[in-house]
């Protein structure tokens, strides 16, 4: 089929469209530079130190000044560092919150920038033909580590002081001693946070990704958490009639058969038990979702990770990143036989929370 006649195109519209496309290429390269700044600890080296030259930063970090200068200029061009002539660069306090302060900032995002694992793009391209996506296991150790660093800050800082107290009776049960499961636990950030806060309770993490379980077991050893245990297992395989409290954080939309897992969670809960779901804020209507300024990123996550995982088996439901919206969540939960469904918005910028009981 012949292309459009260039002479008949709107020149301004063509320039604008071309600029948009090349802007995404610029974003790709800036993303790589953010990854290097995070990986090499450059942002942390600049935090709170005011304007620095490449030479001063080299003395601070031990890195080569010429390489640092080019990186600094990239970050200033991206408006991520402040620049003053001649060649002095500052990481603002706001920048430090987003790119350096991983332990204390709710806005930390530096851990989200990572290169794609080898072979991932080829595997995704093949999935467009076969219909079968890649699992989180296929993404390798870096994938599990990246997910943990992306989701960890909010969980570590808000789960115990704000979210747990909002759930009916859960804090008291955990304080007295309860048995807890995290289904799709990933690297175990949520469970380790709870295990430290509630030493009388026993915590079990279940995940089918060995790389994630390795991260979890490292937490058990490093933090001496004798009340925390991890299991390499799918959600369908969790024990029945065992748990007072169950978590599923940012994972139901990744599962090939969340309907089967939801039914198994109901079987696993003891009478009076509570299930806490955390999942992405979204609407059933794509037009409504279009109001989200980060929507393209969310669908990019879905193709590369969430929907890919949810389509990694022939019978996968393929919900994807935005597929477990409140309407779908309530319908699937009630179809499994649960009677109590309550939605919470804890001002998490990306997620809603659902309190579920039998």
Please give the domain count.
Answer: 2
Mean pLDDT reading = 94
The name of the CATH topology of the largest domain is Rossmann fold
Please give the alpha-carbon distance between the first and last residues: 58 Å
What's the CATH H-level superfamily name of the largest domain? Vaccinia Virus protein VP39
Q: What strand order characterises the main sheet?
A: 5-4-3-6-7-9-8
Number of helices: 14
Rg from C-alpha positions? 23 Å
Main β-sheet: number of strands, strand sense, barrel status? 7 strands, mixed
Name of the level-1 CATH class of the largest domain: Alpha Beta
Which spans of ≥5 residues are poorly predicted at pLDDT below 50? none
What structural class results from the helix and strand content? alpha/beta
Extended strand count: 9
Describe the global form: globular
Report on the structure:
This protein has 358 residues and is of the alpha/beta class. The protein folds into 2 domains: 13-111, Orthogonal Bundle (Arc Repressor Mutant, subunit A); 120-357, Vaccinia Virus protein VP39 (Rossmann fold, 3-Layer(aba) Sandwich), CATH 3.40.50. 47% of the residues lie in helices and 15% in strands. The protein has 14 helices and 9 strands. The protein has helices at 11-39, 42-46, 54-61, 65-77, 93-99, 120-130, 140-163, 170-176, 189-197, 210-223, 258-268, 286-289, 295-310, 326-335; strands at 82-84, 88-90, 179-183, 202-207, 228-232, 243-249, 269-280, 340-344, 351-357. The strands form 2 sheets. Strands 5-4-3-6-7-9-8 form a 7-stranded mixed β-sheet, with helices on both faces. The chain has a two-stranded antiparallel sheet with strand order 1-2. Helix 10 (210-223) links the parallel strand 4 (202-207) and strand 5 (228-232). Helix 3 packs across helix 4 and helix 7 packs parallel to helix 9.
